[in-house]
Structure formats: C-alpha cells, structure tokens
Amino acid sequence: MDTYHRNVHVAAYGETHADVQKDWAALLGRVLLAGIFVFSGYGKIVGFAGTVGNIASKGLPMPEVLAAIAILIEVGAGLAILFGWKARWAALAFIVFLIVITPIFHNFWASAPEQLAAQKINFMKNVSIFGGMMLLFAFGPGRYSVDRG
Fold it and tell me: Hey, where are the domains in the chain?
C-alpha cells in the first residue's frame, strides 16, 4: 500500500498496520497464555485424586478444597483470558495464584539433586508466565476480545 492509501486507510478506519499486528499478537498471546492453564485445569479435573494427593503431599490443609480452587482458577480464568472477557481481572487472579503456588510446588532450593533442574525450569516458567500476566493486566486483551480493551 502506498503512502497516500495508507494515510486514507488510517483516516477512515483509525488504525495502522502496526495496530492490526498488535491486535493479532494480543489474541495469539492470550491463546498461548490461556492454553497452559485450561489444559492443566482439565488435567486436574480428570485426575482429581492425584491432584488432591499432590497438594496433600505439600502439607497443605483441605487439599480437596484447594484442588477445586485451583481448577476454578485455571479453567475459569483461563477461559476468560482466552476469550478476552474480564481479562485484566483474570490476569490478576493468575498473578496472585502464581505468587502463592510457585514457591510451594517448584521450590528448587529444597529439591533433591535429581529434581533440581526440572524444578528450576518450572519455577522460571512460572516467573515468565507471571510476566505475561502482568503485561495482559497492564495493556488489556486487545481488540479481538469480548472486552475489546
């Protein structure tokens, strides 16, 4: 598109090529961020007893209730992010969730030597996802979302 037509397009539609790229990138980013949690939450549903056992093994109280809360957050907030509905609130829920669960379930500093590398990787994965959730919280879900934010 030449400069004249690009300027006409911007004037008529109020968007640039960079705006369109940003909106598609926000959509893809939401899909990728949500995917890990929706799949994980589904896994917790079909493997509920194992999830409860894993939570109990950490010495946490009421493992059934905590498993249900984890499922609700992972599936509920994950779908909210996927569709861009109340995405900033969902991102905030994940921020709190990650702050709580990461040091409990990926405490590499207290891991057995054979689990050290895997726990470090999972800890840093959660830190990276935390960063993605912070960006979603700060900038919103983009145009291609229920919120259109």
Answer: 17-139
pLDDT at 88 over 60: yes
C-beta contacts of 89-94 below 8 A and 24+ residues apart: 91/133, 91/134, 91/136, 91/137, 92/133, 92/137, 94/37, 94/129, 94/130, 94/133
Q: Which residues of 62-89 are buried (b: 16+ CB within 10 A; e: fewer)?
A: ebeebbbebbebbbebbebbbbbebbbe
Residue with tokens 């996927």: 82
User: What is the structure's pLDDT at 25?
Assistant: 95
Task: Report the candidate in 40, 53, 140 with the shortest Cα–Cα distance to residue 98.
Answer: 40
Predicted confidence (pLDDT) at residue 58 exceeds the cutoff of 90: yes
Higher pLDDT, 59 or 11: 59
